[in-house]
Write a structure and sequence with these properties.
The chain is of the alpha/beta class. The chain has three domains: about 170 residues, Alpha Horseshoe (Serine Threonine Protein Phosphatase 5, Tetratricopeptide repeat); about 90 residues, no CATH class; about 180 residues, Rossmann fold, CATH 3.40.50.2000. Helix content is about 50%, strand content about 10%. It contains 22 helices and twelve strands. It has a six-stranded parallel β-sheet, sandwiched between helices. Strands 3-2-1-4 form a four-stranded parallel β-sheet. Strands 6-7 form a two-stranded antiparallel ribbon. Strand 10, helix 21 and strand 11 form a beta-alpha-beta unit. The longest helix has 17 residues. It is globular. The mean pLDDT is about 90.
């Protein structure tokens, strides 16, 4: 990370004095870099020094004389958007459009910000005006398709994405639209089409850009007449890797030799037939290519082996805390505020208020075990306040997947938002989990109903469009009160 990137990170964390000092160093190294002065302008403005902020903006315009005031405002809006300062980003983009209503960068940026705030009526108005001004642009039908999808108009969303793909000119545009088409088709259960479109995903493109020699057409592996050595490369989060490796069994059944290259934390969970050596592999695919390579639209969860010694150790710790039944809980998942964000593609942050979730679990006559990754002190305090009694904090198990699997094997129930532990739990056949699904939820949970074919042992609690978590948590509370109404008899 260079000094300018550090300055942007410090600014986003509201460590303004440090951000100013770091940005000044970046400018000293590259005084003709307009982005450095642009960041400094925002830092000075946040510090209340309007005069120096305007001086910095003037330097930007001297360095980039072809930038108009409108374009400068749009660039500032993009910076604020990157830092998740949405209100400021909206103000900048609107200012840019007032100066130049035909500035596509400002209109697209404002549409993104409003979409993130779920202000869909405004997004639609902006995009329809954008279509009138730029009838061949791919962005506007793509964004209108997203709105249609969130409002339950699924066929309209697919049609909009097809229109956007037809207009896409750049490879980046095609990747964006194609990845969206894949997720929509998979969520609708149109798996064969979805897996083919899934080749557009950003994580696969990232592997190729890193020089990984991926097969252009992984479907060829499904028709090979003789066994081959196939290297599967990690490309997604830990939970996704566990999910996609379920398709490797079909390749193994046909005699193929499978190797995996990825996060060392996954090693204890790999099926026995998967090797860690990648020497002499004939074909290289990303983990998300496994469905196409296997020639399977669907695969059940891969059973995961629990380490007996780890299980015994966690059982002793649970018994010290309290009697069974034991219920695990997680209220937040996804990228944390201080963690790197994907440079391309969307990412989800899933969260239920910890105190409200504690209140939903309060009637259950059970010992509650916290499996939240990196909980804050306030998180823990709020959850136990809602629960009304102590809970056992075993959040450290998230640092070791084999430990987490062993602990999950001891729980009668596991409740939370979709996260890596849900994928581990799925590998423990017959074990119940209750998944709290917000909007949008990942495609693997489907669009409706209390179950997903990908996780047959799990109960799904779906948050509906334009609703908060109240109805979901009330339904959960009623179910737990009924099913854990009395202490467990050993």
């Amino acid at each position: 990370m260079n000094e300018l990137e550090r300055a942007i990170g410090l600014f986003g964390a509201e460590r303004l004095d440090e951000a100013r000092r770091t940005c000044r160093k970046a400018i000293e190294r590259q005084p003709d870099l307009p982005e450095g002065h642009l960041v400094m302008a925002e830092i000075q403005r946040a510090l209340g020094d309007k005069a120096r902020a305007e001086e910095a903006e003037a330097r930007v315009l001297r360095l980039q004389p072809d930038w108009t005031r409108a374009y400068l405002a749009a660039v500032l809006g993009g910076l604020c958007e990157k830092l998740a300062r949405r209100a400021e980003a909206e103000a900048r983009y609107r200012s840019a459009l007032e100066l130049d209503p035909g500035l596509a960068e400002a209109r697209e940026g404002l549409a993104r910000v409003l979409f993130g705030a779920r202000r869909f009526d405004e997004v639609e108005a902006l995009c329809h005006e954008g279509l009138r001004r730029f009838p061949q642009a791919a962005f506007y039908p793509e964004r209108l398709a997203y709105v249609a999808w969130h409002r339950g108009r699924h066929e309209e969303a697919l049609a909009g994405l097809a229109q956007a793909m037809a207009r896409a000119v750049t490879e980046e545009e095609r990747r964006s639209v194609g990845a969206s088409q894949a997720l929509v088709l998979l969520a609708l259960g149109r798996y064969a089409e979805g897996w083919r479109a899934f080749r557009w995903r950003h994580s696969r493109s990232a592997l190729r850009e890193q020089g990984v020699p991926l097969m252009p057409d992984p479907e060829r592996l499904a028709t090979l007449a003789s066994p081959a050595h196939i290297l599967v490369c990690e490309e997604q989060g830990l939970g996704d890797e566990i999910f996609f490796l379920r398709f490797a069994a079909a390749l193994h059944e046909r005699g193929h030799r499978i190797s995996f290259r990825g996060d060392a934390r996954l090693a204890p969970l790999l099926p026995a037939f998967v090797e860690s050596s990648s020497a002499s592999a004939q074909y290289v695919i990303g983990s998300g290519d496994l469905p196409l390579a296997a020639g399977r639209d669907f695969a059940p969860p891969q059973e995961l082996a629990v380490d007996p010694a780890r299980r015994a150790g966690w059982e002793r710790e649970l018994r010290k805390f309290g009697p069974p039944p034991y219920i695990g809980v997680t209220w937040r998942a996804g990228v944390l505020p201080d963690e790197p964000k994907p440079q391309r593609g969307a990412y989800l942050v899933k969260e239920v208020a910890s105190e409200a979730l504690g209140q939903a679990l309060a009637p259950a006559q059970a010992s509650i075990v916290i499996l939240q990754r990196r909980p804050t002190v306030e998180d823990l305090r709020s959850f136990t306040a809602g629960l009304g009694r102590p809970a056992l904090d075993l959040s450290r198990t998230n640092d070791d997947l084999a430990d987490a699997l062993a602990l999950l094997s001891l729980l009668e129930d596991y409740i939370g938002v979709s996260n890596t532990n849900m994928h581990l739990r799925a590998g423990l056949q017959g074990r119940l989990a209750r998944v709290l699904l917000g909007l949008p939820s990942e495609w693997r949970w489907g669009l409706e109903g209390p179950r997903s074919p990908w996780f047959p042992d799990f109960a799904l609690y779906r948050r509906r469009f334009d609703e908060d978590w109240t109805a979901v948590l009330q339904a959960l509370k009623q179910d737990l009160a009924r099913e854990y109404a009395a202490p467990h008899k050993e």
